[in-house]
Amino acid sequence: MATVREGSLEAPTRHPLDWQQPEFYDQENLFTELERVFDICHGCRRCVSLCHSFPTLFDLVDESDTMEVDGVAKDDYWSVVDHCYLCDLCYLTKCPYVPPHEWNVDFPHLMLRAKAIKFKQQGASLRDKVLSSTDSVGKLASIPVVSTVVNAANANGGFRKVLQSALGVSADAVLPKYYSNSLRQRLGFESGEGAQPAGKTTGRVALFATCYGNRNEPSMGEDLKAVFEHNDIPVTLAPKEQCCGMPKLELGDLEAVKRAKEANIPVLAKLVDEGWDIVAPIPSCALMFRQELPLMFPDDADVIKVQQAIFDPFEYLMLRHKHDLLKTDFKNPLGRVAYQVACHQRVQKIGLKTRDLLQLIPDTEIETIERCSGHDGTYAVKVEFHEISMKIARPVVNRVRKFEADYLTSDCIMAGKQIAHGLDDGTEAMHPMTLIRKAYGL
Ligand code: SF4
Ligand code: SF4
User: Fold this and answer.
1) Helix (H, G, I), strand (E, B) or coil at 39
2) d(Cα 259, Cα 269) in Å, to the nearest integer?
3) Mean pLDDT score across all residues of the chain
4) Cα(95) to centroid of ligand 2, in Å?
5) How many whole angstroms from 54 Cα to the centroid of ligand 2?
6) What is the pLDDT of residues 327-364, one digit of tens each?
7) Residue 211: pLDDT above 80?
8) Contact criterion met (CB below 8 Å) for 422 and 386
């Protein structure tokens, strides 16, 4: 007799995404799988507080005639899918039924499959196309003069109301600023001479700046370079890059993810061949190369090569610290630092390296908050989700307020800004690399 075990004892495995097989796009087959997994979730309900997908599902079940999943109309399944922003937390932090458990629950990738089917059938709205086209929008919005106009318009209440009714971009959401003086214009290319390898690090780093880091937060890359060079790690920019594809993945546009992969992977794989390690300062972009692309393209040797050589910046510095190659000559204490751990960083399973490094700074107390900010890519910016996103952020906002922090930080700077928005008291979120630079006095 087969034994159905409660919970999984083995380390979770992740099955590759069969996104190139025709059955992947079979809607009837999708609904059968959704019903199966929803039924398991209904019996479990562990994830109720993670996001709005699960409460949406459980409300649908509880309000149905049968009070079971079979009483929920199939059309209503889409509302569960729409609230998932693929943070991956349910898979990696909660679910005991993930493979190799025989129930084989992979809730995020089931949501992704549903999004991919919806995208294939309906395409995307103009708003969603604009929000996920970070490279083309960024290129346009960061042209000198245009950036000034865009930033001024985005800060103007009247314009934001028009934008909300015309495009569905919430008038209340924080929108990123655009800089014409991009990171690519600020940083040069380096030879990497003088690098000292240690453990699995080569000691020379090519920065995958990320579209956000290039045009929306260029000072973050400058801070990273200053901190790494202070620790004798030469930093160069990847000679060419485009958006990692995460916003397109969240939309279910898997062909666009493939195009992004085809643009980025050859450049990054060549850098790895030349002896560079890759560092990406935005957790979602690192996750794209570490997890999503390898699951979409498991047989692509270059994808796997980049997966093995890409690091989170704090993971990198702490790996060097093990070999006494991190300087601890901090000059400025930071006081009380509220640190939100971004979901896409948590699921990389590298441990709390940012916190560990911040803790090395004398007279610095860290309040570590492992809860979702509700920002999640473009979710918080969409008018229909903004209020819910702020509700998801509320427990984090309350923790920061209670801690009376001197600094608010998150590796995902957009998450930091969402929390600052919830605080609404003039607090500005800073990237932890900016805080480290400050502590070094660089
Ligand atoms: S992946 Fe994140 S947003 Fe999606 S259902 Fe799981 S916890 Fe919710
Ligand atoms: S995803 Fe897993 S842990 Fe979460 S509600 Fe469903 S079965 Fe439970």
Assistant:
1) helix
2) 16
3) 90
4) 5
5) 9
6) 999 999 999 999 999 999 988 889 999 999 999 999 99
7) no
8) no
Nearest residue (by CA) to ligand 2, atom 4, is 47
Mean pLDDT score, 141-163: 71
Pocket around ligand 1: residues whose beta carbon is below 6 Å from it?
47, 50-51, 53, 84-90, 107-108, 111
Q: Which helix (H) or strand (E) holds 114?
A: helix 107-122
Structure pTM?
Answer: 0.91
Q: Are the C-beta atoms of residues 12 and 347 closer than 8 Å to each other? A: no
Domain 328-440: give its CATH code: 3.40.50
Structural domain spans, the chain: 22-122, 126-167, 183-319, 328-440
DSSP 235: E
Q: Quick one: which atom of ligand 1 is closest to the CA of 51?
A: 8
The response to whether residue 95 sits with its C-beta less than 6 Å from ligand 2 reads yes
Which residue carries 């107390």 as its tokens? 365
Greatest pairwise CA separation for the chain in angstroms: 72
| Residue 267 confidence (pLDDT) | 96
**Cβ(141) – ligand 2 distance below 6 Å:** no
Q: To test the ligand 2 pocket, which listed residue (8, 34, 38, 45) has its Cβ within 8 A of the most ligand atoms?
A: 45
Residue-wise pLDDT tens digits, 262-303: 999 999 999 999 999 999 999 999 999 999 999 999 999 999
DSSP bridge partners of 80:
none
Nearest to 285 by CA among 226, 348, 339: 348
Nearest ligand, measured from the Cα of 84: 1
Residue with the larger pLDDT of the pair 211 and 421: 421
